[in-house]
């Protein structure tokens, strides 16, 4: 049985790899077409390609469940088309044993995807974000979107980007008094000194008096604010680009500050339950290969896999976002479509077996 298990596992694994490469290639092409309009003298074609490539590890981890589904349909479908599955069944090999052999490579790939999500994708996504921010800074674009807004010590602070060392880029500090804006400080970067002390670089300060506006520039200025570099870095990243440990850390910080952490909880559980989602979709694929797709063409299997994958992904997003909107535990919202797939796959396999 070991040789047969290995043969089934290799068939599924190679099909998975082909699907993963195709999905990444399509994502690369579509993203390139969408983002090419941003290319200019500062944000060059080379910069765009770097940004897209740095984001591919995160995309790979995200595509693993759907690639597992389509890969299993293709791998087992090929064996079914050559009557090899029929021979295995005639020799007394139960469906659950075939499913076990198909799940082994998917489980290994899913665990590899968890490692990518934890150690590779966050650092790569950070580099991609910094490239985009730096190119905007070089072109003189100082946008108030795409970064992070914070309220710190009665001031409203906008930070365009933060690197892993806690250095801030493109900062604007709005200081109101009551309903009146008193001054705005703009700095190209800021570095943490110690405690609550920060140093602003290339500072422009605009003061709003009753009868005039005064503007002055400074090479450096001190900034006293009670924000830690670590939490600033986490706040400046999109939740879906953070690792599990970073998501857990920032959730804890938000709860201590009595702030809403549901978005970070949602992303945590989507990433943490991804291996189980992959196995659930493999069970659905297995039940389909021995059921309605047994005599279908390869094109029909791929089309069915895409439809099932899209339905699953939309259900995951729907229930996850709904759980956040109605203040329900995100783990339950993420688990609902996964449990439905698991139960459906198990029930259908038992009927076929």
TrEMBL record:
<comment type="similarity">
    <text>Belongs to the LptF/LptG family.</text>
</comment>
<keyword id="KW-0812">Transmembrane</keyword>
<dbReference type="InterPro" id="IPR030923">
    <property type="entry name" value="LptG"/>
</dbReference>
<feature type="transmembrane region" description="Helical">
    <location>
        <begin position="302"/>
        <end position="320"/>
    </location>
</feature>
<feature type="transmembrane region" description="Helical">
    <location>
        <begin position="95"/>
        <end position="116"/>
    </location>
</feature>
<feature type="transmembrane region" description="Helical">
    <location>
        <begin position="12"/>
        <end position="33"/>
    </location>
</feature>
<feature type="transmembrane region" description="Helical">
    <location>
        <begin position="268"/>
        <end position="290"/>
    </location>
</feature>
<protein>
    <submittedName>
        <fullName>LPS export ABC transporter permease LptG</fullName>
    </submittedName>
</protein>
<feature type="transmembrane region" description="Helical">
    <location>
        <begin position="326"/>
        <end position="349"/>
    </location>
</feature>
<keyword id="KW-1133">Transmembrane helix</keyword>
<keyword id="KW-1003">Cell membrane</keyword>
<comment type="subunit">
    <text>Component of the lipopolysaccharide transport and assembly complex. The LptBFG transporter is composed of two ATP-binding proteins (LptB) and two transmembrane proteins (LptF and LptG).</text>
</comment>
<dbReference type="InterPro" id="IPR005495">
    <property type="entry name" value="LptG/LptF_permease"/>
</dbReference>
<keyword id="KW-0472">Membrane</keyword>
<comment type="function">
    <text>Part of the ABC transporter complex LptBFG involved in the translocation of lipopolysaccharide (LPS) from the inner membrane to the outer membrane.</text>
</comment>
<feature type="transmembrane region" description="Helical">
    <location>
        <begin position="63"/>
        <end position="83"/>
    </location>
</feature>
<dbReference type="Pfam" id="PF03739">
    <property type="entry name" value="LptF_LptG"/>
</dbReference>
């Amino acid at each position: 049985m070991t040789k047969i298990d290995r043969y089934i596992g290799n068939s599924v694994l190679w099909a998975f790899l082909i699907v993963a490469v195709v999905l990444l290639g399509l994502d690369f092409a579509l993203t390139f077409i969408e983002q090419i309009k941003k290319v200019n003298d500062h944000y060059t074609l080379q910069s765009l390609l770097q940004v897209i490539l740095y984001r591919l590890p995160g995309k790979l981890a995200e595509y693993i469940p759907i690639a597992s589904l389509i890969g299993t349909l293709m791998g087992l479908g090929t064996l079914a088309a050559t009557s090899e599955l029929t021979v295995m069944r005639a020799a007394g090999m139960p469906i659950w044993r075939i499913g076990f052999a198909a799940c082994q490579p998917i489980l290994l790939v899913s665990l590899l995807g968890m490692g990518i999500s934890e150690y590779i994708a966050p650092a790569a996504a950070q580099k991609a974000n910094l490239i985009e921010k730096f190119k905007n800074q070089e072109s003189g674009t100082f946008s108030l979107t795409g970064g992070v807004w914070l309220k710190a010590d009665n001031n409203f602070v906008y930070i365009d980007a933060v690197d892993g060392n806690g250095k801030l880029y493109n900062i604007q500090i709005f200081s109101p008094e009551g309903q009146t804006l008193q001054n705005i400080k703009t700095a190209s970067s800021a570095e943490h000194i110690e405690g609550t002390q920060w140093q602003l670089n290339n500072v422009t300060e605009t003061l709003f008096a009753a009868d005039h506006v005064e503007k002055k520039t400074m090479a450096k200025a001190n900034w006293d604010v009670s924000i830690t570099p670590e939490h600033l870095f986490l706040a400046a990243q999109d939740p879906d680009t953070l690792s599990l440990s970073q998501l857990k850390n920032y959730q804890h910080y938000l709860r201590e500050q009595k702030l809403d952490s549901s978005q970070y909880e949602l992303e945590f559980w989507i990433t943490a339950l991804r291996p189980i989602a992959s196995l659930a979709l493999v069970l659905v694929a297995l039940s389909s290969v021995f059921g309605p797709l047994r005599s279908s063409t390869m094109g029909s299997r791929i089309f069915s896999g895409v439809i099932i994958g899209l339905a699953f992904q939309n259900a995951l997003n729907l229930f996850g976002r709904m759980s956040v909107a109605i203040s329900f535990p995100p783990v339950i919202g993420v688990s609902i479509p996964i449990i439905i797939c698991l139960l459906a796959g198990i029930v259908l396999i038992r009927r076929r077996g």
